[in-house]
What does this fold into?
Amino acid sequence: MSRNRDLRSQSRSEQGFTAREVGNRNPIPTFLIVCEGAKTEPNYFRSFPVSTRPEVTIVGAGCETIAVVNRAIELMENKKFDRVWCVFVREASLQENRDPSNVNNTAARFRKALQVAEKENIKVAYSNECFEIWYLLHFHLYDTGIPRGDYKKKLTKLLGCDYAKNSDDMYARLEDIQHQAIKHAKILLSSYDPHNLESDNPVTTVHLLVAELNQYIR
It folds into this structure.
């Protein structure tokens, strides 16, 4: 975790990192990351100690799927970004089990969000069922569906302390085993044949965004 120890002293804006150019290099890339959650995902991505200091604007939208994508589009209208990502989850079984009629609605919204994102050249880091599957993959390869209520229990046991959903230190806690999460996420994603974006569970593509940010790790 040594690479993250100096992170606390770095100045940050409320929604991201401060823009900077290094020496005479070309202007550094600008990132926009719009997250479904207001704190969990933004806290994690704000903790990346990038070295060349790209301008990274991170927004906790506090809304779901298609609304997250629409929020990103709104922000893109006011400012040009080189790389735009949306982070959200496939709305899953909790609502669907209570009311089976929700299945088609949630699947349609998820499908629409992916379609609009692709049309607008926005990349998507999605998870089914929770963003926390990304955290769990740091420890083990999970290839069977996990009830949403069990994620906290599993993480509390694996971390050796109570997992708080809005924690701001998850990057630091997991940094040294991040390579395992990337490996497991790739294996999990490739295990679905045929691949069905709407029903694959568990699954995540968060590792794709993580890999992109890792290009700037000091």
